[in-house]
Each structure stands twice: as structure tokens, then as C-alpha cells.
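Take a look at the protein record below and tell me what you see:
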Amino acid sequence: MIKRNEKPPHSETLKFHLPQIDTFNLENGLEVFFVQKKTLPFLYMNLVVDAGSKYDPQGKKGLANLFARMADEGAAEYDSLALSDEFDIIGANFSINCNQDSIYVSLQVLQEEFERGLELFTKVILDPHLHQIDFDREKRKVSTRIMQIQDDADEIANQVFEYKIFGNLNPYAFPTIGYEKDVDIISINDIREYYKNNLMPEHSFLVVVGDYAADKLRQVLNNGFIKWKRSSISAADLSFKTSLAPGLYFVNKKDSVQSELRTGLISFKRNEYDYYARSILNTIFGGQFSSRINLNLRENKGFTYGAFSRFIYFKSSAYFYISTSVGIENTAVSINEIINEIEKIRSGITKEELEFAKSSLIRKFPANFESHRQIAANIIGQVIHSLPDNYFEKYIDEINNVTMERINKAAEDNLNPDNLITIVVGDTSKLKEQLKQFHPKVLHELDIHGNEIGELQF
């Protein structure tokens, strides 16, 4: 008989075996990370190129994203439709994506069709068409999406927050999709130059997960990438200066009935300082449904459907932020509650909170390695952030070893309310009476890109 009013017992020891990661280099120098996973007869492969939007030149933000969108619009002997059909014939999924740090070229294919899938994959890498007609079509799509974002308060809040928290001297301040005025002047020649200067094996690494013999994989990959030669072009030297400008910033969204709130501050990078203490701190503060910030704003106050916090880690920069959407009448009180919660957690956590957060992180950890894509994603993060080879093996022990003193120190070092940048996207005409309480703080009004219009006038 199951007693549903009693919590079922759980094992004290977590039994979990991490996948073995084999590393080797191809003849052209491309580094390969391989995990043999025999549960299903297919492979997942992801080529990661250090060529994300952080390399977009000034005045042409959106260049990397545009390249990623059109790179598979025909390659070698195949036009766009024929190339798509060839992948479909073998039941493969192929995609190219871009974020601030990298271009990701991925392929999921049946084991028996791997060599054919790899052949098509390398055609896209080595011989993309990059034709004007395809460029014009993808450029129109991007322009349309940018226009949609300009009417989306959630998207505006995210973009403006990153712009203000990094400042215009940091390449992470700009959206991957770019700006309308920049995209308008990007040409097909810019795309071709970007391809020539960025897609090369020495700026890339390859992750493969699936049911395949390691020796055979090395041979097949060497044959597939044999024509992808190294180049003498070095990666651009980027500056990641951050101009800290704490304060309260507003973007007017006329007739909005809600306010999008983003508040946060610059943090340590992924491979710096006490990452494990930060992870537990965030779990307690805003990283799960039962976190402090969600219980306050959602459960106790009823201001929002949800509030959360997160550390965002790029390769060369990082930040912590809190995100929520509240009824416009609750904007000021919600900002105050967020600040109050930051002050409270800087005063300490409880033993019960610490043990619950540890248990949550540890018991979720095995689920990060269930699928081929999850395994690949973890390896990619390990490489991008230069984490130690034994990072996954030590993770559970590192979490268990975090003390309350380390959590309290992490809160003190990472959550200084004096350094907070807060973005409010809402109807400022409905907010003015609430905002008077924040004087004598300067309240800045921004446009939808984060550029200052002036101080908010009362």
C-alpha cells in the first residue's frame, strides 16, 4: 500500500557514471572530443567556431548572425532546396546557429548514414554558395524579426539590460541579431569576407557523441575534413572593457499594462573565483520555483507569474540578473522587494536552505547527460570556459564541500546593491507617481536600444 501522505525515501548515495571523453586532433589540427554512447544507433556532431557576434565590426552588428542564417543556403553542387533534400533523404537534422561567442554547426544522423552526412556537412563548411539572392531573402527575414523585437517588451528589456550592464566598449553589449540600421548596410561581400576570415580549423573544435568506434571515427573525420586547411589569419584582438553605470533606467512602452524588470550587475567569469558557491547562492535566491525571490513576488505578493535569477556566463564576461514581469501598478514596490531580498541574502542563509540547494543541484546533475545533445552541450561549455579535465568528475564533491561561510562570502562579493543596474520597460506616464520615491536617485530614460534620452522628468 502506497502512503501518499508520506514522502518516499531516497538513496543517500547517488549512483551515476560519467561518460568517458576521448580527445584527439585531426591532421589539419582540428581538436575532436568524442563520447561513445551506444544506447541508440545515431551520432550527434557539433562544430564550434570561435566566430560569434562579439566579432561583429562596429556599424555592422548582426554580421555573424546573417552568415549563420545563409551558410546552408546551397553548397557545392546543391542549391538550397537540393541540399535540404539530401539531408532529408538520409534522415539527418542539420542546423547552423550563432550566439555572442560562437558559430555552431550541428548534425544528427543515423550511424549507417554518418559518412554521407559528414560529406554534406563538410560541403557546407568548405564550399557554401553565399549567393546574393539567398542573402537578400535572409536579410529581409532578419529585418522583419528586428522589427518584431522592437515591439516586444520582454526582448527590449533583455537587449537594453545587456547594453547598459556592459557598456558600448564591450562586444557583449550588442544583440546577436544586430540593429536594423546596421543590417541594412551589410552586403554579400561582408558575408564572404566574414567566412574567409573566420571559418578555419584552428579557431574551432568538434564534439561527437554516438555509437561509433573511435579508431574508425578518427579515420572518417580525417577524410571528411582533409580539404579544410589551416590559415595564417589570427582571431581579432577584442577588448572587453565594462563601463559600470549603476542606476535606474526606463524605456517607455506606451499603453503597456505591465512592466518588464531586469536588475543585476557584473559578475566573475565562469572559470573565476568560487563558481560552486555562486551556483548554490543563485539556487537559493532565484534559481528554482521555491527560491526566495519567486516565493516573495509570486506566492506571497501575487505581483507576477514568476521571478527568477541567473548567472550568465560568456567566454570573456559574465553577469548576474533578476528577471520578472509585473503589473504596472506594482512596479516600484517590486523593485523595492527585489532590493530587500538582495539585502536579506547578504545577511546570511539557513542550514536548511543550503542542504536543500545542494541536494537539488546534485540530484539534477545526472539528467544533464541523458541525451546526445546534452552531453555535447556540457563538453562545449567545458571547452569554451577552459574548465579542468576532471570538472565533471569533481562536480558533486565540490558542491558538497561548499560551506555556509562560502555562500555568505559569495553573496557579499556578487550581490552589492550599490552596483545594481535596473531596467524598467513600461508606460512611463503610468509610472511617474510611483517613481518619485526613488529620488534623489537619477532616473534615466532610454530608447529601445539603450541609448540615453535624458533624465526622467516629473
